[in-house]
Backbone:
């Protein structure tokens, strides 16, 4: 009998399979479709810390940026540094001082993932770096960088690394039920592409089905409330911008990325509530118009004919409060406490902290199996080589973390207090003439373009 049966072959399940295999557990993964082709492929393809969470949830930025640094060290050529320009116009809700304060506040987190310091850019520099951008009212810009990732490649590389160590995967196999013995979960019933069913027994089942974790949990009579948020992108098969852009969108307060990748361009994402099944996630015509309209504000001739679109549902954990304050934290659920011993679910999180999510789930699995093997996914590259060492970064106190998790309003105040202090420092620097403005040549040197 296998130690682990993993349900779901997106980045979360693939990360769990590799971690388990590296600890010597025998593991098998079920994927009903194509590995990585669901939410993971529909993402914006960024390994990032989450600059926008700095507005209300600094600790998630901290954890995500820290684990993003591990991914940078281990995923090698699947990642590419992506310089991003955030142009600022007269009349925008966020002026240059606010934008620079936010980007500067991101810098301690950037260091965890080998990000570079930001630059403040003149309007002339933005025009030179982004030919065709509307010059009317352009006041300048601020740059920062994230990592573009081949998301499906990252899934494939995690699965391949696990398979090399003896793990197995079944593609086109859907878990349609869970096997129970004396109340315990002891495996799953899987249906293959030809409709054939098999009972797959395992000591533990890990539910890593992303936005489908609730339907899988329901097979054990449990429910995991989610607040799914749909996101769509336009994908062009031609290069349309030379650098990444973060643009204030048509509706105040929202932003869209324009991202150059492998000769193509990605525009998005949207962020809308999704109340149906994850199987029904589609990009609506209005969403696509919204994305196109948001970019057309800046580029008069931005093409209306995109090659394809993507849509996915962010698997955000159920929580109260406004959409603006939704935490992207992940949680490992031990369903043993709810009468379904043997079932573990991984919910929430981002692609950028998938390794940490997998570690926590496999730590729990090892504790249940009585296996004393530490996680080593950050120490080896996906090719199995020794990963380069990283500096040690201080961690936030678990007490503060737990407190802020329970009080979203205080969590927001905590974040805003940090930003307020940052804005005060920025103002003092501006008054003392300490703000430097970079030109296009410095930008290119800085990001190695
Ligand atoms: C629009 C959008 C943009 C995003 N951008 C980013 C970003 O830039 N950076 C970032 O870090 N995160 C981003 N995210 C979040 C990130 O994409 C997700 O957190 C992550 O991809 C979730 O991976 P997953 O493996 O949990 O889910 P999925 O990738 O959806 O994988 C779950 C898998 O489970 C399979 N499955 C479901 N039920 C069963 C079953 N019964 N039997 C067998 N298999 C089953 C599905 O077929 C699917 O392949 C974005 C999300 C969205 C929607």
Residues:
């Amino acid at each position: 009998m296998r130690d682990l049966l993993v349900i779901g072959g997106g980045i979360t399940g693939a990360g769990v399979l590799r971690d388990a295999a590296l600890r010597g557990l025998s593991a098998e993964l079920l994927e009903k479709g194509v590995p990585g082709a669901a939410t993971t492929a529909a993402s914006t393809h960024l390994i990032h810390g989450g600059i926008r969470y700095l507005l209300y949830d600094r600790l998630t930025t901290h954890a995500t940026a820290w684990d993003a640094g591990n991914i940078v060290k281990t995923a090698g050529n699947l990642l590419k540094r992506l310089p991003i320009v955030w142009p600022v116009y007269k009349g925008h809700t966020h002026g240059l001082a606010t934008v620079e304060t936010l980007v500067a506040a991101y810098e301690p987190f950037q260091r965890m993932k080998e990000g570079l310091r930001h630059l403040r850019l003149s309007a002339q520099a933005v025009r030179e770096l982004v030919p065709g951008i509307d010059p009317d009212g352009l006041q300048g810009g601020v740059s920062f960088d994230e990592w573009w990732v081949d998301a499906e490649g990252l899934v494939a590389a995690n699965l391949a690394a696990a398979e090399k160590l003896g793990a197995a995967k079944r593609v086109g196999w859907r878990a349609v039920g869970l096997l129970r013995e004396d109340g315990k979960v002891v495996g799953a019933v899987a249906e293959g592409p030809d409709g054939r069913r098999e009972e797959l027994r395992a000591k533990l089942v890990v539910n890593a089905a992303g936005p489908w974790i609730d339907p899988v949990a329901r097979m054990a009579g449990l429910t995991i409330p989610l607040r799914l948020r749909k996101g769509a992108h336009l994908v062009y098969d031609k290069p349309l911008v030379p650098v990444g852009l973060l643009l204030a969108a048509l509706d105040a307060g929202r932003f869209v990325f324009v991202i150059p990748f492998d000769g193509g361009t990605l525009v998005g994402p949207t962020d809308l509530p999704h109340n149906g099944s994850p199987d029904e996630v589609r990009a609506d015509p209005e969403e696509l118009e919204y994305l196109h309209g948001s970019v057309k504000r800046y580029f008069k001739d931005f093409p209306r004919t995109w090659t394809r679109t993507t849509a996915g549902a962010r698997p955000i954990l159920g929580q109260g409060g406004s959409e603006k304050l939704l935490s992207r934290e992940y949680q490992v659920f031990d369903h043993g406490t709810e009468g379904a011993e043997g079932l573990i679910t991984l919910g929430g999180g981002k692609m950028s902290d998938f390794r940490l999510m997998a570690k926590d789930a496999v730590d729990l699995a090892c504790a249940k199996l009585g296996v004393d093997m530490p996680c080593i996914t950050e120490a080896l590259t996906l090719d199995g080589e020794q990963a380069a060492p990283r500096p040690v970064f201080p961690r936030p106190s678990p007490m503060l973390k737990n407190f802020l998790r329970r009080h979203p309003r205080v969590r927001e105040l905590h974040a805003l207090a940090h930003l307020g202090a940052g804005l005060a420092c920025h103002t003092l620097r501006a008054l003392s003439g300490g703000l430097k403005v970079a030109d296009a040549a410095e930008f290119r040197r800085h990001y190695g373009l």
About this structure: The chain is about 30% helix and 25% strand. Residues 309 and 329 are 27 Å apart (CA to CA). The domain at 1-45+150-228+325-396 is CATH 3.50.50.60 (FAD/NAD(P)-binding domain). The longest helix spans residues 408-431.
